[in-house]
Every structure is written in structure tokens, then in C-alpha cells.
Amino acid sequence: MIPALIDSHCHLDFPEFQGREEELLAAMAANGVVAALVAGVTMEGFSSVLSLAERHANLYAAVGIHPDTLDGSEADEDTLVTLATHPKVLAIGETGLDYYRLEGDLEWQRERFRRHIHAAIRAHKPLIIHTREAANDTLQILREEGAGQVGGVFHCFTETWDVAQDALALGFHISISGIVTFKKATQVHHVASLVPLDRLLVETDAPYLAPVPHRGKLNHPALVRHVAEEVARLRNVSIETLASATSANFQRLFGVQFHA
Known about the structure:
Blueprint: E1 5-10, H1 21-30, E2 33-39, H2 46-55, E3 59-63, H3 77-83, E4 89-98, H4 107-123, E5 127-132, H5 135-144, E6 152-154, H6 161-169, E7 172-176, H7 186-194, E8 200-202, H8 224-235, H9 239-254
Helix pairs in contact: 3-4, 7-8, 8-9
């Protein structure tokens, strides 16, 4: 029997997947992937995210604006809180800081991040954190705003073990993506081997970052199995152990229960 896995972060609402919904869900079922969380990145796109979650019992949603989104509507705190009351919305995010693509005064990004944290605390929902070349500021703002009250997950983790330890100390989980299957991703390998098993998640971040042996192709939730298998190998545990732990972690963190 294939052990049950959960893709803790994907973007099935993106154009790459248009018209392929049933195909993707069938592939998930064939690979023992029993659920997936579809993370919002814009206000304009959130209706599509929520619609997916409403149509399928094993798909869930998160509401937020990606940190490097420049176009589109902002969301005030009240709007985020209201949208997060929907029973299929499990989290606020993805949100955070990204200094990789943008230059200049990025205070607007930090203000947006703070709004998301405030909304998560008011809504009693965990946060989905995106951070790239901004780890120190990300952690500082999480501490300043009391984000440990709700916790959440640092998704698609690529930072150092020191950053991971700081995130764990704040009550956050660490999610490992298909990058862990890349030969040169030694920093991710190291973190994946050390995160406490009860604080670990796996994800695809589909349509991006397809794991080996599908690297360079379109990623989708069924391929989270390759991520889990590599993490299990790095930790010297069975895929059954890894799948059981990460699925339990997801359900506990996001407050859902289901039977594989």
C-alpha cells in the first residue's frame, strides 16, 4: 500500500493547470497523495483558489499576497480576516519578504507582511511564510508582531540550519520542496536531515521546482512522493515513517482531519 502523503504547498490555480484538474487529482490518488493546499498569491486570483478547494474535499486554500507581487489589489487586514473565516481556508499566505528580484525601498513589502501577520493572529490561522534573501528581516518581523501565537510554516525552505532553528524556536514548521532532490542543494539536504520529525512538511510548490527525475518539467502534487522519498533517504527512515509524520504534522498545524 502506498503511504499517504500531503502536498503542503502548490498553485493548482495557475494557468499551466487549466483544464487538467481531473488528471491532476487522478495522479494524486495513484501516488497516495491524499490532500494538497493551494496557496494564494494575489487577491485577484483568490476566487480561483477557493473555487478549487470548494469543488474538491481533498484540496484546501490559503489567502494572501506573495511578497514580490507588484500588480493587483492590496488587501487590508479586515479583508484577510474575513476571507480566512471560510472553512476551506486553512492559513494566511503565502506572505513574507523577498529581496531577490526587487530593489530600492521595500518598506511596502514589510508593511504588507505585518498586515498578514496581524490578520492571522485575529483569524487564529497559521501563516505560510515565503522568504528569499530576507531571512533576518523575516524573523525579526515575526518576532516583533508576535507571530509565534499562531505559528505556521516556512515553505520551500532554502535557508541555513541556523535560520531553520530560529524559525523552529518561533513555533514554525519547515517545508521541504523538490529542491532537496537536486544534487548541489547541499544546504537543503542538511536542513532536511535535521528538522525534528514532528515539525517537518513536504511540498511541490507546483508548477515550479519539479523534483528529480522530472526536473525541468511541469511540477504537480503527485510528484511530492519524490520529495518525501529523498527526505526519508537523507534521514535514514522509511518512506512510511516520513509520510505518516508529515501528514500528521499537516493535519495538526492546519486543524484538519481526514482518513486516507
